[in-house]
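Entry type: protein chain
Record version: 2
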Amino acid sequence: MVDDTPILPGLSPVAGKAIVARFDGGKLSSEGGLLALREIESRLGLADRLADCLKDPRAPERVRHSLADIIRFRMMLIAAGYEDGNDADHLRTDPIFKLALERLPSGADLCSQSTVSRLENLPDRRALLRLAQAFVEQYCASFREVPRRIVLDADDTFDRVHGGQQLRLFNAFYDDYGFQPIVVFDGEGRFVTAMLRPMPRCVATLRRWSGARPNASKPAPAKASEGRGRSRPAASSGVSRSSTTPPKAGAGSSALSPVSRLVRREATPGSS
């Protein structure tokens, strides 16, 4: 290939070194950090795990962007600070974003905003539950050994919207519209999952994984009444202290491995 790109002549040297200015930079990007994030996502396989929670209604022969690639692109956009799906229309040609999705800068463009929007409107209620569950499973897989105890810190967080998104609600404290999901972290500050109320599915998954079980001597919590004006019993959350007390020596559950018999949620100031 013959490079006939001219240089800018007549530039004076600095400290005895010549300065050469050329105009052959090609496609440039300011998102170099995504290359490191690409390695992390590739090792974790999070996009593929989340894609497995969804049913793709598209005709396979007409699919240009897999669900995993759309999710991966959306994650990269958010990580780089582009929270609005509209940014996909401009960044779908960015060379670093292409490399992060295993494409050469000269390869096919990534998905557009409309494709991202269709993905975000695809999950139904069951799919959302599977997605939340997938995050818990990803968290469990991050341990080399099952911990002796897991402390959960669940806090609702206000996610302000910037348009007329469906199901947005007005929050008087923040004086704005937005969503308010529950975000769950463990005692070490590691992300576990994000979900809407209630939390028993998250705790149940951690119990199954760790081998812990509720105290057999404790009666099962009463079901919440569906009657108007009746409040849900506090024990129905399945994470009360009494339901997670480690079994005493000689108890019927003592045959379990001593590793991780306790999964407990301890409220911290400001926790919900």
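Comment: The radius of gyration is 25 Å.
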